[in-house]
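Sat 14:20. Reprocessing the chain from the morning session after the first attempt stalled halfway. Input below, unchanged.
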Amino acid sequence: MPTLKITKRAVDSLQPSTSQAFVWDTEVKGFGLKVTAKGKRTYIFQYRTGGREAATQRVTIGEHGSPWSPDSARKEALRLAGLVRQGGDPREDARQRRKAAVTLAFSDYADFFVERYLKVNWKTWREAERILNRDVKPVFRRRPLPSITKADIDDLLGGMDDRPALKRQAYAILNKLFNWAMKNRGDISASPMASMEAVSTVPSRDRHLSAEEMAAFALAADATPYPFGPYFLVLAGTLQRRETVAGADWAQMSPAGDLWSIPARLMKNKLDHLTPCNGEVRETLAVLGYKRAGLIFTTTGKTGVSGFSKAKATLDKRMLRILRTRAEQRGEDVTHIDDATLLPPWRFHDLRRTGVTALQAMGVPVEVTEDLLAHTSGTRGGVAGVYNKYRYLPEKRVALDLWGEFLRDVRSTKLAAEPHRKWLYATRLKRLDVDAT
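Finished this time. Tokens:
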């Protein structure tokens, strides 16, 4: 049998013959390379257990190519040789490793982690489970836990740079998962996150869109085709969360389309929520054509819309064009203003802050806006949250009607006016009381 030092150059230069051939390494006894007639190159280890009289046995290390190179395969052969000297059997070792790779598949292990650790120790385990299911499992899927590297996790978290709060949560969850797998379970020898810098605390955001920016948003949404155009309009019109609107179903809407009964599974606080739908939202849904059931915003019919980053990038481009056009119509010179100055960075969540800011300016009480957003803190927390079960439905309807009228009005003016009209809310409520009598 030919022998040589197995290097990458040597492996690449080997030519297949008419039959299977073996080449053995000159440095590590038993380490070899199998070359098939079709040119497939596989690293192997040959050994005996039980002395010279025992039969020769062979175990496959792996096929040439990532992750197996001559150096990594030689290290594995040395490990197997040490195992044989200690009385172990490399074939049994290989079986155990294959079994471990299955049981340590990330998706399965994440479920195990939720059951055995998060549900027992984290009050916010439902949110952690949601992040694992939605943002992490689709990336790592069935990959064995030991194969996930620091670079893999860095790539995952890097994709969340536009969502710093989510990035920090995902970091904390994964850091705990890998540390638990290593220290508590002994399922991995080291955490890939051991040398990673912690994600910094997210500063409190105060970004809200100006009236002119909201005008550009509404007009850009009008020009965006289904599913994202109508989705943007309902997102702004209802002031609900991104994932909540993405999961909206026709079955949740009242026959008249004026009430949306949101199930707990779509809410961050995991509580059922009831919110009115203003004229802007009802008009958007009517254009889509009301149905008895089925996801409202979907491309597959099975899952709600996704790909928000790409959709928002397209929306931002439309908004910038609209902002420049409206400024030019007013006689302003914006040729030397860069995009980031004309439209500072913003996120979908900022729409909620924008809406609440406008409603406060219109005189809407804070307890109404808290209930509209389904916040469980603030006026809905503590004693008030326990004893005050009133859900402000008439008040929320008036508030959202005003907000909807503002969104409609800003489309039609060259310069959108800020909604500082405190008398509106009280007047509307008084009119509601008169109509009710």
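The chain has three domains: 3-90, 106-184, 211-436.
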